[in-house]
Fold these 2 entries.
Entry 1:
Amino acid sequence: MSLTILLVGAVFASLAFGVLLAYGVCLAMFRVFHIHVQSTARRGLATGVSVNANR
């Protein structure tokens, strides 16, 4: 019985770790995309090109 509880706890801990890891990867990718959008907008302003995000 205690082995079953241990295995269930290990599965849930592994699942929670995977969810947190995926969340961290998503946050990192959103930051990368945000930095890319900002640099693209700055490059457009520097060259005089209008960047319209509402297409």
Entry 2:
Amino acid sequence: MSASEVSVPLPPEEVVRRFYEFLARGQLVDALDLFTTDARLREGSKRESSGIRAIAASLLPYREPQEISVEQVEADGPEVRAVVRSKKGRSVGRFSVARGRIQSAQM
């Protein structure tokens, strides 16, 4: 692999932005590709999913296109805060991103 073929990981805020764009379009596989295989997903204060299979099951409602718009994305190093609007209202997601992959998410 030559130096020109080496891929540079996306900045953390861009990873999160793409995650929401994929969910909005119903592209669940592309959204899941942004997670590490051992990632954790916490949905509100309810339950936590760990590992890519559990996260895939948690995100199944997003396999159809959604009305999701990202209003704001702020990164502080690998930690990202995203304000998102959907039919259910405004919500805040918190993500930990490393090397272009989401390690943990709270939505």
